[in-house]
Amino acid sequence: MAARANQAIMVHLPPPSPLGRAWGALKALPRAHPLAFGVLFSGAKTSGADLLVQKHIEKRESIDWKRNGAFAAFGFAYLGGIQYFIYVPLFGRLFPTAAAFAGKTFRQKMADPRGWFTVAKQVALDQLVHHPILYFPCFYATKVAVTEGVGPFTSLERGVETYRENWWADLSALWKIWVPATLVNFAFSPMWFRIPFVACTSMFWTCILSAMRGGESENSVKGLNQGADSATDTFGSQGRALDRILARKYAYENPRNTRLVLTVTGEDKEGIAGALGSIVFSLGGNVGKAHQINMGTDFSLMMEVIIDKSSVNELTEQLHSIQNTFNIHFGSRELQDEAERQGEGEEGAEGAEGDDRGPTAMQHFMLAGPDRPGIVSCTMRLFAEQGVSVSSLQSELFSGPSPRFVLSGDVGRRRGGFSAAEASELRAVLERAAAEMGLELTLESK
To answer: Would you say residue 167 has pLDDT above 80?
Structure first.
């Protein structure tokens, strides 16, 4: 019996599946090759973040692969390589007890004030020395090289110059996100996981900021915000990007702000939109909706500016200061309060009760067909007779043996949108008019 009790019990486990072996090798990779893993992970993260920004924020139809490659290289070289040597070998030498503290249980950490003091010193060195002196100059130099296509020395010079102007805004915004993130990283991450933690946190914030910006009503004027707001900050200077998003969202609610409609006309030249955006941003303002029309060499721009009432005069002076430089003309007026319109909208919504569906705010229409006199005037007269207001209007004439004219736009009602019956009536009226003019009609709810 005793001999039988001392016998070992052999349990035959099935060999791991190919998927299990692959997962085990993948989990072991960061520990076995922390530098290589950090470099590859950070480069892939930065490339993916830029793709997200290009498609979701900038809404590009095609990817700028040259720009993506440049930021991916920055991710590989700096975020994965240089940051690894700072966070792991350098900090490991400067703070020899850091790795042991990170490996302790939470209860053990709570009983180790010296360990927390070491964590605080690492956070301070990272946020007060590393980022101000090394990270931001490198990031701005990369951004200049990508956006302006200049060489490394010129990009570094211009990047440092830009950073000198923005250093306090950059750092104060940085600390809002990365002081708590770095505190968690240095306190709980093993040394090999520090770079992947930074990359994951950065990608997480990129997704959040992209969702916040992607939900906004973006203006259609390319380059208007280049001087004031760069989408690349969404993954390179995320605190600054967050500050800009919040400032834009709360600008409408600030009672000290006023909303202006600014119109600009003149000969289209490179740099006009960027100069306008820089002036508005330098005065603490925000650009809301904006639309630009080009005809030949001339252009007309209408943009909404939200700015502190005390800065309106200075805004006007600065705009006139660039008037002669670009040979352009300005006009501005204050937008009226929309409370009355909203009240009318509520009345309209109540009046639509009992309908088979709720009110639709806008209708988009398009009339297309052979060109003939009177298309625009007839259409506008019909809208007026139906009590419909036109919020946007575009037209284009396609020349050729049989000239073709296209008129499109958005229409709505001031009193809360279209009910189902009103939308049907508008469609019937437009269909009759389109048939008389020999045009094709498209009408759909927005």
So the answer is: yes
Domain span at 281: 252-334
Tokens of 426: 């508008």
DSSP string of 361-399, one letter each residue: SEEEEEEEEE--TTHHHHHHHHHHHTT-EEEEEEEEEE-
Instruction: Annotate 101-149 with DSSP letters as a single string.
Output: HHTS-HHHHHT-HHHHHHHHHHHHHIIIIIIIIIIHHHHHHHHHHHHH-
Tokens 């650009």 locate to 287
The total number of structural domains that make up the chain: 3
Question: Can you count the helices (H) and strands (E) in the chain?
Answer: 20, 8
425 in helix, strand or coil? helix
CATH of the domain at 262: 3.30.70.260
Strand partners for 8: none
Residue 325, domain member (yes or no):
yes
- State whether 267 and 403 are in the same domain: no
242 and 317 in contact (C-beta within 8 Å)? no
With cut-offs at 50, 70 and 90, classify the pLDDT of residue 217. very low
Show Cβ contacts of residue 345 under 8 Å, excluding neighbours closer than 6 positions: 414, 415, 416, 417
Around Cβ 387, how many Cβ atoms within 10 Å?
11
The pLDDT tens digits for 116-142 are: 999 999 999 999 999 999 998 988 888
134 plus 86 within the same structural domain: yes
Tokens 């101000």 belong to 132
The β-bridge relationship of strands 328-334 and 286-295 is: unpaired
Token reading at 86: 């700072």
Q: What is the mean pLDDT of residues 258-282?
A: 82
- Whole-model pTM? 0.54
Residue 14 lies in a domain: no
CA gap 196, 79 in Å, rounded: 10
How far apart CA 286 and CA 421 sit, in angstroms, is 39
Say what angle helices 152-188 and 113-125 make with each other, to 10 degrees.
Answer: 170
